[in-house]
Design goal:
The complex is a heterodimer of chains A (108) and B (114). With 108 residues, chain A is mostly beta strands. Chain A has strands at residues 4-7, 10-14, 19-25, 31-37, 43-49, 52-56, 59-64, 69-74, 83-91, 95-98, 102-107. In chain A, the strands form two sheets. In chain A, strands 2, 4, 5, 9, 10 and 11 form a six-stranded mixed β-sheet that branches. A five-stranded antiparallel β-sheet of chain A has the order 1-3-8-7-6, with no helix packed on it. The chains are: A mainly beta (108), B mainly beta (114).
Chain lengths: 108, 114
């Protein structure tokens, strides 16, 4: 069992749909990163959060430290949102534990 | 501001040949990471530097992999000799100060070993 698990592994959506990707972790973390990776591309950091909620454009990330759970929401999804979304937790401040990623495809 | 710069973007070599990857982190970032990413999987840490010191190289296969960050700025990752299983994307990332800050990744260097 991975220390950081994501669901779903694969997600398809129609353009305009509201999307939620979940991340659960079993170890103590001080902060959680949400990352985006387009096919053949590098990784882009979307959010780093340790509590509450952050919003950037159509993206919203929330975290509940007590429940060891974080979600990434995409409102009004668009085909350009198609990518792999990865959550990663800061463990003991010196180790980043990655989830296995959620592959999102948004169709027009 | 320039992001994390890696080169080459793509490299194809035959097995047993050496290969080197270069990374220039964001200016002022003390922490530099090298990750390996296989297709469809998440990144795996190879080595982490704090300035010029390698503070975590426990996952670096030291029989064939080596890395350096001599002046605490740019870094090179070398594989000698390369094996078929080394085919992957090698990602470099940097942060201002460890994991307390945001992580910035380069575009990666895709290695194909034939």
């Amino acid at each position: 069992k991975n220390e950081v698990e994501q669901s779903p592994q694969n997600l398809t959506a129609q353009e305009g749909e509201f999307i939620t990707i979940n991340c659960s972790y079993s170890v103590g973390i001080s902060a959680l990163h949400w990352l985006q990776q387009h096919p053949g591309g590098g990784i882009v950091s979307l959010f780093m959060l340790s509590s509450g909620k952050k919003k950037h454009g159509r993206l919203i990330a929330t975290i509940n430290i007590q429940e060891k759970h974080s979600s990434l929401h995409i409102t009004a999804s668009h085909p350009r949102d198609s990518a792999v979304y990865i959550c990663a937790g800061n463990h003991n401040t010196d180790k980043l534990i990655f989830g296995t990623g959620t592959r999102l495809q948004v169709f027009p | 501001e320039a992001g994390v710069v890696q080169s080459p973007r793509y490299k194809i070599i035959e097995k047993k040949q050496p290969v080197a990857f270069w990374c220039n982190p964001i200016s002022g970032h003390n922490t530099l990471y090298w990750y390996l990413q296989n297709l469809g999987q998440g990144p795996e840490l190879l080595i982490r530097y704090e300035n010029e010191e390698a503070v975590d190289d426990s996952q670096l296969p030291k029989d064939r992999f080596s890395a350096e960050r001599l002046k605490g700025v740019d870094s090179t990752l070398k594989i000698q000799p390369a094996e078929l299983g080394d085919s992957a994307v090698y990602l470099c990332a940097s942060s201002l100060d460890g994991l307390t800050g945001e992580l910035f990744f380069g575009e990666g260097s895709r290695l194909t070993v034939l």
